[in-house]
Structure formats: structure tokens, C-alpha cells
TrEMBL record:
CDD domains: PBP2_LTTR_substrate. Residues 1-58 form the HTH lysR-type domain. Coiled coil: none annotated. It comes from Rhodovulum kholense. GO terms for biological process: DNA-templated transcription. Belongs to the LysR transcriptional regulatory family. One of its GO terms (molecular function) is sequence-specific DNA binding. It comes from the Bacteria. This is LysR family transcriptional regulator. PROSITE patterns: HTH_LYSR.
Amino acid sequence: MNWDDMRLFLAVARAESLTGAGKALRLDPATLGRRIARLEEALGSALFARSPRGYGLTEAGERLMVRAVEAEQALTEGVEEVRGQEGQLTGTVRIGAPDGVANYLLPQVAAAICDRHPGLEVQIVALARVFNLSRREADMAIAVSPPKTGRLTVQRIADYQLHLAAHRDYLAAHPPIRDLADLAGHRIVGYIPDMIFDSELDYLSATGAERVALASNSVSVQLNWLRAGAGLGIVHDFAIPAAPGLVRVLADRVALRRSFYLIRHGDDRKLARLTRFAGLLLDGVRAELQRLEGLT
């Protein structure tokens, strides 16, 4: 077995398909499939469960995944030391996050980190669901609730604020809103109820509304509806500066506080490179939250 085999294995495990991994590796999927089959034959164990939905890790594959990631990180750190770049971060770091933080906080934070570490590549995966770090979908993830199971480490990043908001044009064209009872005559924008993946994202009760007329599992879609003057909805304060014309409504009556958490795999505590990056990420997100919320 050589490192190239592990590199191919990691790519397939992360993409969960030969096609996705082949694109990342610039390798023909058929060739990649043969290489994976030979690796499984050499190890005497199936690493992937094939299905129409793709390649899922078997129990043996998950065990190998943990060690392969450790080896990958150790190799990256070793290369940095040999090149005399102990003070510089290089290689790739993948962050998973809900699309609100992925769209309105992480881009500028990641760019600032890369400005200081030009050899670093940061990937942001925005998904409206909980990330599975045990399957190494990402190197670390930002979540709105701390996980209760799994070999994970959790660091609280910071609290953030949310308020009811609407565009000035919408408010000018519709009846005034002086109390929660007045919301009954207005169109509410929010999450699709049965696609709320974390109870911390269930904001409907804060408005007293019984239904969401315009719903999406994406924070960005919701914000675009509000920006277009389509209705009222709960908005992250840190996203309001990205939507000129959006103003808070009943700010003293509808105000929510939530928290962000940085989640990492428990085994990654030994990896100095990821720990250093996590520290930069924590500091960056906290500072950007404070800056953006100050603008509102």
C-alpha cells in the first residue's frame, strides 16, 4: 500500500461517489473504481458499500478513514516543517456550516486568514443539515447546537442576535405594524417547517404567526425574498448589512439570541495545523460578528 492509494480512498470517501472524486482528482471514474477495488482486495476488506446513491463507508472504511486523515494531516505538517514554514499554514481545510453563517460570515473571515497564509486553501460547504464529522465530510463544522453524541470536541464561538425584519418598501406599502397582533395581516417568510434540521432554527413561535407563506430551507433565499419586499421574516442581525433597505421590526418585542459552536473530531486535537486554524477561525468569526451586528 502507498500514500497514493490513501489519497484516492480519501477522495472517494469525501465525495461519496466515483464521479465527484474523479473530478477532484482529475481522474477517470472507471480508473478510480478499479484502483479502489484493488485496494480493497489488497486489504481483504470492503471499504465502501456501493448503492445507486453512491459510495458509503463500511465499518472498515470508517476505521481506515480516521487513520488516513491523521496521516494526511501529519504529512502536511511535515512538509511545512521541511519547507521552513512552521509559521505558515498550507494545504486544504474544509469547513461545514449552515448557509447563513456560510454566506454572511465565513467568506470574509476565510479570506482574511488566507491573506495571512497564502499557501492555505479554505473550502466552505454550506448545507442545511448537521455535518457528519465521523465520516469526514469536513475538517470542522459550525453548528447552532452542541452535539450530544460522537467522539467530538465542542467550542462555543459566540452568541448572535436575530430580529424580525422587512424591507422599507414592503413596510411603506402595507398596514403599519405596532404590535404582534398586527402581523396577522402580513406575509411571513421563513423555514419550511418539516425541513428545520435543528430546533434552534424554529423561529415561528417568536412571531406568533400560524403559517409561513414563503418558505425555504435556505437563509439566503429567505433574505432575498425580504430584500425584494415580499414580506417579513426572522433575520440574523449580521446578515442585515448585506441587504440594504432591510430594517428591524418590533425590535423590542421580537428578539432572539442563539449561539454558534465549533465542532471538531475528537482525534483532531493532536493535529497542530487544524488547531491553529481553528483558533484563527474562532477569533475571526467573533470579530466579524461584533462588527456586523454593530452596523445594525
